[in-house]
Design a protein that fits this description.
The protein is α+β, with helices and mostly antiparallel strands and 304 residues long. The chain has three domains: 85 residues, Uridine Diphospho-n-acetylenolpyruvylglucosamine Reductase, domain 2; 117 residues, Uridine Diphospho-n-acetylenolpyruvylglucosamine Reductase, domain 3 (2-Layer Sandwich), CATH 3.30.465.10; 82 residues, UDP-N-acetylenolpyruvoylglucosamine reductase, C-terminal domain (Uridine Diphospho-n-acetylenolpyruvylglucosamine Reductase, domain 1, Alpha-Beta Complex), CATH 3.90.78.10. It is built from seven helices and 19 strands. The strands form six sheets. It has a five-stranded antiparallel β-sheet with strand order 6-7-13-11-12.
């Protein structure tokens, strides 16, 4: 019996949603990627722990996926299991009047609206970031002067051995686009945001302002994975790329956005190879002309 049959049987027995040969292009904002052998969506930490234990005992490789907004997946697809944290694991609740408890699959926009509706401020910067709470913790997402590290008080997790644990704020090792989870081997099961009291009207107005700025400056109407490169120390990736005259530069269906040079977009038929080729061309050109080394911010899944 192969791994897909094994996992399918396990998922059915434990009430876990699963999909065989799941087209990853349907689960990523880049709209790129071939089929995963099997995609599974647990509803809670208990189901996730069971999945991890089962995969470890049967030698099945696992990859974790949030809402797919910062991932580039190979056209060949993904062998083994993709465990997705999405709407099935996205509860949000309030504790002690100012703490937001979020499941890892909670959309950032959902968390922002919940905070606004409860007159809590501090999360407005994240409105419009098209990712999940778990993904935001993983990479310490940020925008417009705010970062997740500013508001995250705690993250619960299950590790690759099936053990459970908690990272308090001091344990999370936040830095630019990095956290303690960036090392791998731990799967976020819950997040606590510590927010301040505010005026719901002012919070809502700030959220709408953030969203309007995104639509004005970023290619929100085209498939992408957000900012393609990290900000190098002492410069901005988009300014470097723009300064090298690379806006609109294309390889196959992949293009440096003509609206914002920090984004690589899928013009309709981009492949994994197109994006990698384009990114490599951009890195070489920027290094040659400016001396700055660009590192990818998008998570690139390797062929396995």
């Amino acid at each position: 019996m192969d791994s897909v049959e094994l996992l399918g049987g396990f998922a059915e027995k434990n009430g876990i949603f699963h999909l065989v040969d799941a087209p990853m292009c349907d689960y990523t904002s880049f709209k790129i990627g071939g089929p995963a052998d099997i995609l599974l969506e647990p509803d809670n930490a208990e189901q996730l722990k069971g999945l991890i234990d089962f995969c470890r005992e049967n030698g099945i490789e696992i990859r974790a996926l949030g809402r797919g907004s910062n991932v580039l997946v190979p056209d060949e697809g993904v062998r083994g299991a993709v465990v997705r944290f999405g709407s099935r694991y996205s509860e949000v609740s309030l504790r002690d009047g100012h703490m937001l408890l979020c499941g890892p699959g909670t959309a950032l926009a959902q968390a922002c609206r919940f905070a606004r509706d409860n007159s809590l401020t501090g999360l407005e910067f994240a409105y419009g970031i098209p990712g999940s709470v778990g993904g935001a913790i993983f990479m310490n997402a940020g925008a417009y002067g705010g970062e997740i590290k500013d508001i995250c008080a705690r993250a619960d997790f299950v590790d690759s051995l099936g053990g459970t644990g908690i990272f308090e704020k001091a344990d999370l090792e936040f830095s630019y686009r990095h956290s303690a989870f960036s090392k791998g081997g731990k799967y976020i099961t819950g997040v606590v945001f510590d927010l301040d009291s505010g005026d719901a009207g002012e919070i809502g107005a700030k959220m709408e302002e953030m969203l309007a700025r995104r639509f004005e400056k970023q290619p929100m109407d085209m498939p992408s994975a957000g900012s393609t490169f990290k900000r190098p120390e002492g410069a901005f990736a988009s300014a470097l790329i723009d300064g090298c005259g690379l806006k609109g530069y294309s390889v196959g269906g992949a293009q440096v956005s003509s609206k914002h040079a920090g984004f690589v977009v899928n013009t309709g038929n981009a492949t994994y190879g197109d994006v990698l080729h384009l990114m490599d061309d951009v890195k070489k050109r920027v290094l040659k002309e400016t001396g700055f080394v660009l590192e990818p911010e998008v998570e690139i899944w390797k062929v396995n």
